[in-house]
Amino acid sequence: MNYILVDDMLYIDIASxxxxxxxxxxxxxxxxxxxxxxxxxxKWLYIDERPAKREDELKGDxxxxxxxxxxxxxQGHYGELKVVYEDELCLIVYKPEGLLVHxxxxxxxxxxxxxxxxxxxxxIKALAHPLHRLDKETQxxxxxxxxxxFEGYFDRELEYKRIKRNYIAVxxxxxxxxxxxxxxxxxxxxxxxxxxxxxxGKEAKTIxxxxxxxxxxxxxxxxxxxxxxxxxxxxxxxxxxxxxxDDLYGIKSDLIKEMGLVANEMSFYQPxxxxxxxxxxxxxxxxxxxx
Length: 291
What we know:
Elements: E1 3-6, E2 9-13, H1 22-29, H2 33-41, E3 45-47, E4 50-51, E5 62-66, E6 82-86, E7 90-95, H3 111-121, E8 129-130, E9 139-145, H4 148-159, E10 164-172, E11 179-182, E12 185-188, E13 191-197, E14 205-214, E15 217-224, H5 231-238, E16 261-270, E17 275-280, H6 285-290
Parallel strand pairs: 9-16
Antiparallel strand pairs: 1-2, 2-5, 3-4, 3-5, 6-7, 7-9, 8-9, 10-15, 10-16, 11-14, 12-13, 14-15, 16-17
């Protein structure tokens, strides 16, 4: 689609759109019934200068959409933020080790707080929403939706596995061949912080591909086919290759400083640009040195 963004108003060239009606546009891109209703009721959607109705055909020059209609007066908290990718809909940032993605009620500053402040200082009072989590100990890429209207679209993309996430892990032991680890996971009844392989648990599947190895360690690429809590950490430990410096499931090592797990690659379809976006980040220097 051909479009421009002026302040918070998105102007889409109707001739470049695939949808033929307002209803079809809403069904494809605005998944939430609430926001479909609000777009029409609050006149956040126009065909040229006329407020659009659900039954309207897309005939005219421009479809005009208020992209950030829901202001967030919470300015969040200032903090250093490494932005890896940003466009009108998406913000992908690097979460360092030791930072929560969002609050667990203990009052700590979170990555979401820092993202809120970044958007506020950028002049966008958007409802920053992380699509997924990383464990506090894990570092790497996190996807934030900038527009509440398109949040449901990206949630669906994640649910249907069309947002791909890959990790680099450093493990004890030498992994010589590709592993397909398909072990269901559930909560440990004896320790609420841990997950365990549990036959009646949720489906969990991880693809592990060796990159390099050394004296009793391996560096591997891990591709998630499901997104369970601690999935990679438990799967590798259960397979006999615990992650270095993983306090819950792994083994201490001086080979690297941090826990040996980094979410370093992500790919997704951007519906306005109508193209696949691939994003990657630098690895910590000590892990990069092993590779």
